[in-house]
């Protein structure tokens, strides 16, 4: 979509719209979540990979940002509906995403993904108080975990 804006070439927007439609038809679930990985060869989403990064989880909210951009650029309401359903799905689950891990390296790895969730929340903060509370809770949680971990394991991508 950004290439469309920079070049005024409608083909870029058309391609982004087709990608968004493919994503929503192949990777979303009935409850508002999105699978995190898709295998083009088998034409199916991966449901379980044994790793947290392959699970349907709150970092997928960043996909909602792309859907909102597609909605603004195309006017297709299904993109806005998907972004909203994904936001609601993630809001129900975000508090448990960082729980249970004790290895500092793994905590930092999950923090990076959790920050993707927080970024995906930003447009929703103006929509409802739940998003605002989740953002406030999340920022404090990240700050506290980074303080607990100390300088040895902190990564610049998480800090950014």
Query: How would you characterize the largest beta sheet?
Result: 2 strands, antiparallel
Question: Numbering strands along the chain, what is their spatial order in the largest sheet?
Answer: 1-2
Regarding quaternary structure, what we see is single chain
Query: What is the count of β-strands?
Result: 2
User: Which series of helices and strands comes N to C?
Assistant: HHEEHHHHH
What integer is the average pLDDT? 82
Count of alpha and pi helical runs: 7
Count the domains.
Answer: 1
User: Which regions have little confidence, pLDDT < 50, spanning 5+ residues?
Assistant: none
Q: How does the helix and strand content classify structurally?
A: mainly alpha
- Report the span from N to C terminus: 24 Å
Helical content (DSSP H or I, runs of 4+) = 55-70%
Question: What integer value in Å does the Rg equal?
Answer: 17 Å
The general outline is: globular
Could you tell me the strand content as a percent range? under 5%
In a few lines, what is going on in this structure?
The protein is mainly alpha-helical and 160 residues long.
């Amino acid at each position: 979509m950004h290439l469309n804006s920079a070049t005024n070439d409608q083909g870029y927007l058309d391609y982004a719209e087709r990608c968004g439609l493919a994503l929503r038809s192949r990777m979303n679930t009935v409850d508002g979540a999105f699978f995190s990985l898709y295998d083009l060869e088998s034409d199916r989403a991966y449901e379980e990979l044994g790793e947290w990064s392959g699970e349907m989880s709150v970092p997928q909210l960043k996909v909602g940002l792309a859907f909102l951009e597609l909605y603004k650029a195309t006017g297709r309401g299904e993109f806005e509906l998907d972004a909203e359903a994904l936001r609601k799905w993630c809001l129900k689950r975000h508090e448990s995403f960082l729980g249970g891990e004790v290895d500092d390296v793994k905590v930092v790895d999950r923090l990076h993904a959790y920050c993707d969730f927080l970024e995906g929340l930003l447009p929703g903060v103006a929509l409802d108080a739940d998003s605002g509370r989740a953002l406030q809770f999340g920022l404090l949680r990240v700050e506290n975990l980074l303080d607990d971990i100390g300088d040895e394991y902190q990564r610049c991508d998480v800090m950014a």
